Amino acid sequence: MTVKQNVRTDLALEEKEKFDSDQVEVKGVVLEENYNEKTEIRITRVEIETEKGAKSMGKPVGTYLTLEAGNMPEPDEDYHREISKEIAKCIGELIDKIKAEEGKSEIAALIVGLGNRKVTPDALGPFVVDNLSVNRHIIKEYGKYAMNLSSANSLSALVPGVMGQTGMETLEIVRGVVEETHPDVVIAIDALAARNSRRLNRTVQITDTGISPGSGVGNHRNGLNIESLGVPVIAIGIPTVVDAVTIVNDTMENLVHALEGSKTLKSMGSILKSYTNTEKQELIRELIAPHLNGLFVTPKDIDETMKQVSYTLSESLNLLFANETRI
Amino acid sequence: MTVKQNVRTDLALEEKEKFDSDQVEVKGVVLEENYNEKTEIRITRVEIETEKGAKSMGKPVGTYLTLEAGNMPEPDEDYHREISKEIAKCIGELIDKIKAEEGKSEIAALIVGLGNRKVTPDALGPFVVDNLSVNRHIIKEYGKYAMNLSSANSLSALVPGVMGQTGMETLEIVRGVVEETHPDVVIAIDALAARNSRRLNRTVQITDTGISPGSGVGNHRNGLNIESLGVPVIAIGIPTVVDAVTIVNDTMENLVHALEGSKTLKSMGSILKSYTNTEKQELIRELIAPHLNGLFVTPKDIDETMKQVSYTLSESLNLLFANETRI
Amino acid sequence: MTVKQNVRTDLALEEKEKFDSDQVEVKGVVLEENYNEKTEIRITRVEIETEKGAKSMGKPVGTYLTLEAGNMPEPDEDYHREISKEIAKCIGELIDKIKAEEGKSEIAALIVGLGNRKVTPDALGPFVVDNLSVNRHIIKEYGKYAMNLSSANSLSALVPGVMGQTGMETLEIVRGVVEETHPDVVIAIDALAARNSRRLNRTVQITDTGISPGSGVGNHRNGLNIESLGVPVIAIGIPTVVDAVTIVNDTMENLVHALEGSKTLKSMGSILKSYTNTEKQELIRELIAPHLNGLFVTPKDIDETMKQVSYTLSESLNLLFANETRI
Amino acid sequence: MTVKQNVRTDLALEEKEKFDSDQVEVKGVVLEENYNEKTEIRITRVEIETEKGAKSMGKPVGTYLTLEAGNMPEPDEDYHREISKEIAKCIGELIDKIKAEEGKSEIAALIVGLGNRKVTPDALGPFVVDNLSVNRHIIKEYGKYAMNLSSANSLSALVPGVMGQTGMETLEIVRGVVEETHPDVVIAIDALAARNSRRLNRTVQITDTGISPGSGVGNHRNGLNIESLGVPVIAIGIPTVVDAVTIVNDTMENLVHALEGSKTLKSMGSILKSYTNTEKQELIRELIAPHLNGLFVTPKDIDETMKQVSYTLSESLNLLFANETRI
Predict the structure, then answer these.
(1) Same domain as B114, residue B84
(2) At a CB cut-off of 8 Å and minimum separation 6, what does A39 contact?
């Protein structure tokens, strides 16, 4: 059934899963999965290699690393440092590629915390920036030798706000700051919408393709990428919401499975299957209550969870760039 | 179809609507509706008059006033004072009944702000208390004449917290404070779960039956009522969430309507109708994804909305008890 | 006595008062005072007209309007709209001068909320921006006619953060955004340090000279002005702290007055007067406890007060630019 | 000089120091100091043994343990667990005394977080409670054996709010809850006023005398102690402010020292010394600016510091009572 294609997800992994469940092979897209039994962390690599693959997936060509850690939203004394380290490795891989391409041994990164600080499930970016150990100003003032380092990455950070608060496109603000401060790479942090509620606050997507237009909880109007900013953009996202309409789609899918699997209901399943696409579309349209638009599904403890996962992510960036850790 | 009975709602109005849609008359329950075209505020009175009615409704005998104001969650310069006034009238009606019963011309009220300040959609109670103009301590110290009043209601307020934060039942805390400070009435404020997402943050339920066990976003374990506290308890609630499983139920109901209404799908509708209850239950069980438990549907701007509606409600109580207004 | 010169103030008015108390006339500086008995608002205009005046005052040539309203920090239902209107008039005067100079009938303003959101007495700028009705994006998308306006000022806003959070100079961020979005004027909002604790949260300084290096609660390293940004900069500040060392200076001044005024102590006063400047400096150095550095004097209710005064100031800007008001 | 006696401090240690600097011995008061060079933590024990000592000190008979740790307000990854452990030992000593007196091997403690959550330097108590691992409800529901413990202390917690928010005396609320839930001991947490700005956020006072009337940043009207509550009360306080008038006193004291120590000013010093007490009092009265009342001296980073020190203190209580730690 084609229902699934209508459902929004910002995760390349979930986009790929749609095809998998239909047992369709997607040309130009390679998937590789890696599960660490000790840390219970699963890392999935989706490589979109061709424009054809990009078109099928609705996402740009590039590398998408997805880290899944079931216990990430749970309280933990050191904010799951073991997860922070794995995230740092994934980001490090993409950073190393940029270093190699640009022939640099040290790199200046500008972290951009996207989203709205006042809307809890959209506040991931601002919260992550709140806990970074920026050091660009220190290196600029005293030099890296003053920090007893022979080589030092430099970290700066910006919370641009959202258009409804600033009257400006996020792209305008970030582009202005990039042109003024010349980072080697922009790392954009954003809260995402997932398709599967099981992924909420348990999944980190890291990609070298930047931020796509229309993505994120706050629906960015313009992309942030090497074309629009002039420097490579790594995007890091954590799904914090599921669109309420997604739940309706899930129910429909479950219905189809139920009808097919159940003895008593099988006759109805075969009727459903015999419907034309137009008939199916009609059915779905009627099922989606108009008042679900603008509604999100989140866990009840979203305030606490956002604090927890943003610390875990800040720590990854501090490990990678600040050569030290702080609270 | 009996699906609806499984869905949780804290609103007596929605409980009543379930029966209405099945065109079943509920003995011992009277409903009266009043729509003010000028203010666009609808007030519905549900009187549960008999124990039989209470059993059918799953709610105690008493008066349930429900005020619906479509624009309540929208930003407004004076936090919708026109709505505050209508809410104050509804509360005033129940207060006057208590005054008459107890033969008092002035009344000491203890407002109890239930819920968890750290969980935004559960924070209605604490937020309302934050904006109250309490005066019990002033009246106690200087007397009502010092305030140039010949008669003065007295207002005190408590945020007891939730059991996970306090290690105590809310009932234990409130009972202790009631026994120590002797209010004439307790007014408990709580965030509710609705059935219909259109009601979120647009509806205020005011009842003289107190807080029922298991109700509220935070699911109170014990009731707060005249039996447990020894003084009359008025409960005021605003629905701030819909349980995610409710959305699945809504989808099912819409499916039934769609099947019945659509020419092409009518045959399927008649099949569904021919199913036994057991067959239907099986279908529903399979449709509800297990991961929806603990998930809530809320509007994206819940942080801002909670601030807005809590001000509107505080203002009602200030109008009624504090004989003055403040910010 | 020259003690006073050592004391920091960001208010031109207080700088001028130092000279007044010594009955010294400052060449190139004109002061004009205006008290409205009805609103109880005092507006003082300090015009620094010459470079010589600028040097004496330690502040750049330009217009400094200071509005004093004793009840500004007090709770008020509409956040002192009467004060908002007066502030709007003062800002409007400086805006009109810029319009005249640039030959424009409508103006695009970028509000820059300086300071640290996480340090309450430094959070004025961010808090003001939180409550602005920005409209640049709406005008840009739909045009001013869509808003039923024949002429419309445009409002955008930025919270750049502080260097310790961003690793970037505020100037770098603002300059980048100005170059990208081309406002006609930048209006920088900042929390100030006053000399006199009576002025805390009761005074608004509005100047067309921009932000001076070293000013503000957060001590800006670089100035924000027409030279550094390429567009005129209006600075609006409210004093929210007094440096703790200022209190010591005040005590010394009071001591001198006490010694001079009191019969019993007069002999000591005359001794003090006979001291050389070196002797006086020595005395003062010893009086200032080293642990006072980094300490601020603020009212106890600073959290509530910051909320209150930031609303009053936001409202001025909304009145002037947004052609509408919101909460 | 008697200036010092006028200055407010909530620390018994500072009260004692006043006498020490005058080299006066206080009968009935014993002081014992202990400095750990490894942890750099100083613990001072002041025992007020007799009513005469209590009168001299202006504090009730009992044990006052003061822990000073210079780095407590500094950011730290595990919120200074080494300090938490030392604080836990001090509290444990007083708890053991209560256990011995009451012949109990396990104890039920009610933590009361005094102060105003909305006034940052007064929010110590509420912030500490926010991070406690309460367990009374778990032990009550499942028993200590379910927790795999043969003996378990029980922890509950309350944030009563302040009178201006509740309309009730803190004592009324706490007494009601104590009578309803029967703890063996109440532990009251409160922000204090210190005399010496060097002590701010670096000092923890732990006493078995409860909370005195008039103490704390919020100036409690009634005491919380065994007389008013019927159970022993341990009070834990951290100084977060210095009254602004204290700074004036310090300046005066420094002036006296300066006058005595300096060659050039010695003559003035001897004049001051020759003054009568009346003359001195007159001098001081004139030096204290009336607008300093209600003003506090705090460090600029008070918001961050309060978070830091409240975590350190929560952790002590979790170590002692919750038999586990959490974030």
Answers:
(1) yes
(2) A69, A82, A83, A86
| Domain match, A68 and A181 both | yes
For helices C277-287 and D244-261, the axis angle rounded to 10 degrees is: 130
pLDDT at C38 > cutoff 70: yes
Q: Are residues B314 and B259 in the same domain?
A: no
Structurally, chain C folds into a number of domains equal to: 2
3-state secondary structure B186-247: EEEEEEEEECCHHHCCCEEEEECCCECCCCCCCCCCCCECHHHHCCCEEEEEEEEEEEHHHH
Alpha carbon distances (Å) from D145 to D149, D183, D317: 5, 20, 21
Testing the interface with D: which of A77, A315, A325 to mutate, by most D Cβ within 10 A?
A77
> What's the pLDDT band for C279 if we cut at 50, 70, 90?
low
The pLDDT of residue D215: 87
pLDDT tens digits along B33-52: 999 999 899 999 999 999 99
CA dihedral B267, B250, A203, A169 (to 10 degrees): 110
Q: Which residue of D has its CA nearest to B176?
A: D176
What is the Cα–Cα distance from C194 to D296, expressed in whole angstroms?
A: 15
Instruction: Give me the residue from D265, D294, D300 closest to C283, CB to CB.
Output: D265
Q: Which residues pair with A69 in a beta bridge?
A: A41
Beta partners for residue D238, in sequence order: D191
- Does B254 fall in a domain? yes
CA distance C136 to C155: 5
Cβ contacts of A163 on chain C, cutoff 8 Å: 137
Chain B contact residues (CB < 8 Å to C): 75-79, 308, 325-327
CA distance A22 to A2: 9
Tens of pLDDT, residue by residue over D160-178, are 999 999 999 999 999 999 9
C-alpha–C-alpha distance, residues B240 and C292, integer Å: 48
| Mean pLDDT confidence for B119-142 | 93
CA distance to partner chain A, nearest, from residue D158 (Å): 20
pTM of the model: 0.87
Residues D79 and D175 in one domain: yes
**Rg of chain D on CA atoms, in Å:** 21
| D78/chain A closest Cα distance in angstroms | 8
What distances in angstroms separate CA D282 from CA A273, C193, C261, D210, D288, one per listed residue? 98, 31, 12, 36, 11
The per-residue pLDDT for range B284-310, each reduced to its tens digit, is 666 666 667 778 888 888 888 999 999
Chains B & D: contacts with CB separation below 8 Å: 101
Q: What is the ipTM of this complex?
A: 0.87
Task: Determine, yes or no, domain membership for D282.
Answer: yes
Look-up of token digits 């009992």: D62
- Answer yes or no: do A278 and A205 share one domain: no
Give the whole-angstrom CA distance, residue D93 versus residue D43.
13
What lies within 8 Å, CB to CB, of B204 at 6+ separation is B66, B67, B69, B72, B87, B90, B236, B237, B238, B313
Burial (0-12, 13-18, 19+ Cβ within 10 Å), C240: buried
Residue D84 with chain A: CB contacts under 8 Å: none
Q: In C, which residues are within 8 Å of D115 by CB distance? A: none
Shortest Cα distance from C135 to chain A (angstroms)?
Answer: 6
Instruction: Assess contact for A95 and A107: CB atoms under 8 A.
Output: yes
- Kindly report the length of chain B: 327
Whether residue C78 is found in the same domain as residue C28: yes
Q: Any idea what the CATH number is for the domain that residue B42 is in? A: 3.40.50.1450
Residue of B nearest to D128 (CA): B165
User: In this structure, are D262 and D163 located in the same domain?
Assistant: no
CA distance C280 to C3: 8
Residues D72 and D173 in one domain: yes
Strands A108-113 and A62-69: unpaired
CA atoms within 13 A on the CB side of D173: 26
Residue B236: closest CA among B277, B175, B185, B286: B185
